[in-house]
Design brief:
The chain is built from 5 helices and 4 strands; from the N terminus they run αβααβααββ. The protein is of the alpha+beta class. The chain has a single domain, classed as Pathogenesis-related Protein p14a, CATH 3.40.33.10. This is CAP domain-containing protein.
């Protein structure tokens, strides 16, 4: 009986631990989707067409956010991948015009979008009518706690 209880406990522990990353990924995906939604609300306010969420660009943006977290930097230039335009091309993203917004330490999608809207250069990128596609990446952890990346393309 003790052996059966021990096996059952170990199995339950294994299942609960394996679910934790899935929950974190789901939260990250929600945060990323919410940034796209809030971005489109801001674009709508000024009469700019919405951007479409692009899962391929989102993968690149998430990779960039994780790279900043894992390698302790905060910059448009990645020591791993180079500038955002080279990175997007290396990941197979086709575009003729692209832009990137990055942010750190904001704890929610609304806080990060508001932060970008409060900055002239970030707002200009976010509201640029030339961009039709958007990928958002979010990574938690590292020395800045929260890393956000928006990658825009036409």
């Amino acid at each position: 009986m003790k052996k059966a209880v021990g096996i059952l406990f170990a199995f339950a522990l294994m299942i609960s631990v394996s679910l934790i990353p899935g929950k974190a990924e789901a939260a990250n995906t929600y945060f990323e989707s919410e940034v796209v939604r809030l971005t489109n609300i801001e674009r709508q306010k000024v009469g700019v067409a919405p951007v479409k969420s692009d899962s391929n660009i989102a993968y690149v943006a998430r990779t960039k956010a994780e790279d900043m977290r894992d390698n302790n930097y905060f910059s448009h230039y990645s020591p791993t991948y180079g500038d955002p335009f080279i990175m997007m091309k290396d990941f197979g993203i086709k575009f003729t015009k692209a832009g990137e917004n990055i942010a750190a330490r904001q704890t929610s999608p609304s806080a990060v979008v508001q932060s970008w809207m409060n900055s002239d250069t970030h707002r200009e990128t976010l509201l640029n009518p030339a961009y039709t596609r958007l990928g958002v990446g979010y990574a938690q952890g590292g020395y800045l706690d929260h890393y956000w990346v928006q990658m825009f393309a036409n």
